[in-house]
Amino acid sequence: MRRTPLTRPAPPPAPVPFRDFEEEPRPARRRRRVLTVFTYLLLAASVVFLGRYLHGGDGDRIVVPAATPLLVSRHPSAAPSKAAPSTRVIVRAAGTSGSFEYVTGTGPVLGGAGPIRRFHLAIEKPATFGAPSSFAREVDRTLGDRRSWIAERRFRFQRVPVAVHAEFTIYLASARTSERMCRTGGLETGAYTSCRLSQKVIVNDDRWEGAVHGYGAPLTTYRAYVINHEVGHQLGHGHEACPGRGRLAPVMMQQTFGLKGCVANSWPFPNGKRYTGPPAP
């Protein structure tokens, strides 16, 4: 019997070293890590910038005093509550409530000489978005103008928060609320004009938003006039009449009732000198 010679099996193939074929080359991995870190840093910087942008206008917010909100007072000489203000932002629609909220923050000192006469700013709630800051800017701009009362160099003005003592308060009130407030001091406005009571300058919001028909000047001119006119009463000035057709109306003339041939004027010192008219009859 013939024997078949034994054959050795073929040796197994040499093992192939393990390699992740999806792995990127080292330079590519390094570039990807750097790009990822840069992306995270850019996102973080964007979040910080956005947060500062959204809160950048919080300097003059409207707040409600911690005590009961100020209601229409039957005692014109009563001062607003000195309770510390809260910090919530008011964003509401316009309306009539008869109660007020106060602008926070301290304004710049307006004027170059004399003692500082401090004032509060109050706006009837609920206030439209942006109205309080806009009102504060226009009042500051008006009283700080070199043609305004500071031209006398006898005193300066400064807006302060309600927690700080002030000589008077400037109110922006709806037509009906301003009428009721003025009536407490014996003044009948017909819900049409603004007025001044003891320690209170009361601006009719209808006039603030729309001036008067036939005024013949921009709304900004009327707004500066009404602030200077009513603050002029606070400073002790009475009404004056038109000095002649075609001439400037004195700021203490009741321009809301018509110019009587005069030209609209917002300023007590329009040309660097005190401009007046004859006493009103």
From TrEMBL:
Work out whether the entry's keyword set contains Transmembrane.
yes
Question: Record's superkingdom?
Answer: Bacteria
Question: Pfam families from the entry?
Answer: DUF3152 (PF11350)
DUF3152 domain mapped to chain residues? 96-259
* Statement: the UniProt record of this protein carries the keyword Transmembrane: yes
Could you tell me which InterPro entries the record lists for this protein?
A: DUF3152
Q: Which keywords annotate this record?
A: Membrane, Transmembrane, Transmembrane helix
Q: Where is this region: Disordered?
A: 1-25
Transmembrane ranges, per UniProt, are 34-54
Name used for this protein in its record: DUF3152 domain-containing protein
